[in-house]
Automatic annotation (TrEMBL), chains A, B:
Name listed for the protein in its UniProt record: LacI family transcriptional regulator
Ranges where the HTH lacI-type domain occurs: 8-62
SMART domains: HTH_LACI (SM00354)
UniProt key word DNA-binding: yes
Keywords annotated in UniProt: DNA-binding, Transcription, Transcription regulation
Organism listed in the record: Streptomyces aquilus
GO molecular function: DNA-binding transcription factor activity; transcription cis-regulatory region binding
Record-linked Pfam families: LacI, Peripla_BP_3
Residues of the signal peptide: none
CDD domains linked to this entry: HTH_LacI (cd01392), PBP1_LacI_sugar_binding-like (cd06267)
Keyword Coiled coil: no
Amino acid sequence: MSETAPRPTLEAVAARAGVSRATVSRVVNGGDGVREPLVERVRRAVEELGYVPNQAARSLVTRRHDAIAVVVAEPETRVFADPFFALQLRGISKELTAHDNQLVLLLTEGRDDHARVGRYLAGGHVDGALVFSLHLDDPLPGLIQRAGIPTVFGGRPGWRDGTGEEVVYVDSDNRGGARDAVRHLVGLGRSRVAHITGALDQTSAVDRLEGFRDVVGDVDARLVVEGDFTPAGGERAMRELLDRCPDVDAVFAANDLTASGALRVLREHGRRVPDDVAVIGFDDMLPIAEQTDPPLTTIRQDIEEMGRLMARLLLKGSGDAMSGVVLPTTLVRRASA
Amino acid sequence: MSETAPRPTLEAVAARAGVSRATVSRVVNGGDGVREPLVERVRRAVEELGYVPNQAARSLVTRRHDAIAVVVAEPETRVFADPFFALQLRGISKELTAHDNQLVLLLTEGRDDHARVGRYLAGGHVDGALVFSLHLDDPLPGLIQRAGIPTVFGGRPGWRDGTGEEVVYVDSDNRGGARDAVRHLVGLGRSRVAHITGALDQTSAVDRLEGFRDVVGDVDARLVVEGDFTPAGGERAMRELLDRCPDVDAVFAANDLTASGALRVLREHGRRVPDDVAVIGFDDMLPIAEQTDPPLTTIRQDIEEMGRLMARLLLKGSGDAMSGVVLPTTLVRRASA
DNA sequence: TTGAAAGCGCTAACAG
DNA sequence: CTGTTAGCGCTTTCAA
């Protein structure tokens, strides 16, 4: 990679404006305590020279970087098969941008990467980290805690650390949303409500299952079948469901992707939705929920806002000692239930 | 955000190992020209102190950052509705990681952001940039060229700069792939082959249309209808197509998403695929192509590899003065054609 | 209010 | 081979 052209320094600006480096520095950083005429002169010099502060030099003394890391463990392609992650990223990006922070993206796959990420985080390159720990047994969170930098998790982490330290996270009200979904189904007069779960090594899946149980009470075990948040998983689960309980009249799918798979199988088996079987999803992933046949009734979570909030908490220092923020969900009614 | 704990410096390591800072520096940076026993002593000291180099200090003198920016203009949600971008990102990330580079993600929306990105890039925070310029009239590329840092574009940029400067980009062989697709359809004995285009303000869509024309020769204008790379666009276009030419017997859709929409409409109209109408897509986006009914025959492009290659070119300095690299595509045969 | 001076932690000549 | 030295460009006391 070729060298970038030499850029003007604070020194150069100072010379041009006929002031000291210190004064230029003050102006560049807000200009408090500098008399107006000087401010003006410095501003002009900055303009003329096209001066941009050298971030490395600044960080060296301030020990701040105005950058945060976003860590995503993505051992599976699933992360990429739905727009979930991208939406959070967008929310994060917006918030960071608004606060002049940069986003350093750390994608990990496998063990070696964990060490690398740990080192990077501990290396003081960034002011904080936003991490998405999808799985219950993920070693990443531990590593990051050890790195000792401010961290906010996306989704409720699956572990409880014995240390009693606060774990800051942002999550959707998965359990409450699931309850709403199932209540809706029950309100429709359905009596044999099934649940296709998500991947149960993720807290979101566990929480949604809990919500389902909250409403259904003692569940006929045959009405709960494990999925994995994918359409294929949804298909498989739906087949099994139909096989076990041909009289099932409603399905709460752990997410929209799962629901789309389930819908396909129902159609294939000649069941009419919602007449024979009502189906409800979770997420309200527009490109999916609006495109299914019939359009999907689902539980909406504001994913972009989750990202935004994570960034906001991290930047604020979350000194409020709050540990988790849970965002509400809403029922979006379309045609499938 | 709270301060990170004070970390050991080179000085500290030197003291502990009983050598000079320079020696420690040498060891940390590869250890060439340092006698083994010393190397060992230094290594141990580093280990014991948990020393991690201060990147800011290092950058200050080396003027390198071991970081590159990935710039994505995403005025529309479309970027997030398909996994395309995420896959490229993954390829990029892998390659950068292998070369100990960090990935700074710059998401832009709207004009103000452009200025911000321009400033950042010009500000010498990163060693280079990877840019995804989706649209023909995007002002971003210009801005970036002006920033004067090494840049590789994802997808053939829509403009030709008069400067005669080399523009480095990585793209799929959209035109060739399109030709393969249409030839396949023709080889199936289809005689009324239609094309649903992508958003024609993107070079990929234009190139695929060209490829279509290459094979079909003088096209019946009614057989080309504009889409926008979305399922909804595909539906709309397919309806129009059926309306205009009820006897259409094959469709080349600009991408898999478009094809999925077209399939839906065909089914709705009682056309059998591929018996009545053969359908072929572009991308081979697995979660889509494998889930459609019937599974989609399509043109595969190796998206992750594109990302990887972009990163490789940037890091290599692409001093080979080559301007564009075009990756081959392959036909993936499933059931729809 | 402004300026002078002292580093932040590191690398890179240059000596030895 | 190893150590000494001089900065990289900036912020931040401390005086003036």
